[in-house]
Amino acid sequence: MKLNNKVAVLTGAANGIGLAVSRRYLAEGALCVLADLQLSDELAALLASHPERTLWLPTDITLEADIDRLVNHAVARFGRIDILYNNAAIFDMAPLLEASRDSYQRLFDVNVKGMFFLLQAVARQMVLQGHGGKIINLSSQAGRRGEALVSHYCATKAAVISYTQSAALALAPHGICVNAIAPGVVDTPMWQAVDALFARHEGLAPGEKKRQVGAAVPLGRMGRPDDLAGAAVFLASTDADYITAQTLNVDGGNWMS
């Protein structure tokens, strides 16, 4: 029970990686405040199985009022916040010469602005509590390099790595460790939309891009959401008390650093 009685706030909890990490945090004994735009059937079942140890809040992290409500309700229900799993993000892509201002704005609003201001709000609460804490931001292997069709998304995930480093230095005097996880290609519901976009822009058959990226992973397959859960638990636990400002690759060997 590596997270026994720790209070964790998790965003993007309704599906994919966020749902897998939510399940694992509960299995490790955490008290979980779970946030997303909408409630999925899978998350509803998880909430029903742990009613005393969970709180669900519909949350749009681009809205300051929603961020404040999330933090305030977490503290009101459980008394404090020990862990932030800062996971919510969106994806879009287009050829560089066709990339739109609207797509740019949406991606940066969620993946950067929302990520940062939620981090800031939770960090303020942790500083007020005076007992340190763990903040884990979700980046991507896309934040490690540029991609011709994915310029906006790559830039947002590079920003996550940069903010992780800056926040770690700023919050170290308060005993708050800030790290990130950089997944590779992970087989989540979002990849259906990603595959369709690649099919359109690269002239591929549906499913072909997904097959290609899975085959290119050194370990021979796409990741699964559960593959990220162990790293998320580790970085939130006392095992990682002397680790901060790092971005951990969980990608089957796609990126070496």
Walkthrough of the structure:
The chain has 257 residues and is an alpha/beta fold. It has a single domain (7-186, 224-250), classed as NAD(P)-binding Rossmann-like Domain (Rossmann fold), CATH 3.40.50. It has helices at 16-27, 41-49, 64-78, 101-129, 151-171, 190-202, 208-216, 225-236, and strands at 7-11, 31-36, 54-58, 83-86, 133-138, 176-183, 247-250. Helix 1 (16-27) crosses helix 8 and helix 4 (101-129) runs parallel beside helix 5 (151-171). The longest helix is centred in the middle third of the chain and has 29 residues, at 101-129. It holds the Pfam family adh_short_C2.
For the record, what CATH class applies?
Answer: Alpha Beta
- Number of E strands: 7
Percentage of residues in DSSP E strands = 5-15%
- Total helices: the number is 8
Helix and strand pattern: EHEHEHEHEHEHHHE
Largest sheet: 7 strands, parallel
CATH superfamily: NAD(P)-binding Rossmann-like Domain
Q: What overall form do the CA principal axes indicate?
A: globular
The structural domain count equals: 1
Structural class: alpha/beta
CATH-derived topology: Rossmann fold
Residue windows where pLDDT falls under 50 for at least 5 positions: none
Mean pLDDT: 97
Summarize the amount of helix as a percent range: 40-55%
Biggest sheet strand line-up? 3-2-1-4-5-6-7
CATH architecture, by name, is: 3-Layer(aba) Sandwich
Instruction: Report the radius of gyration as a whole number of Å.
Output: 18 Å
What is the distance, rounded to the nearest whole angstrom, between the alpha carbons of the first and last residues? Answer: 30 Å
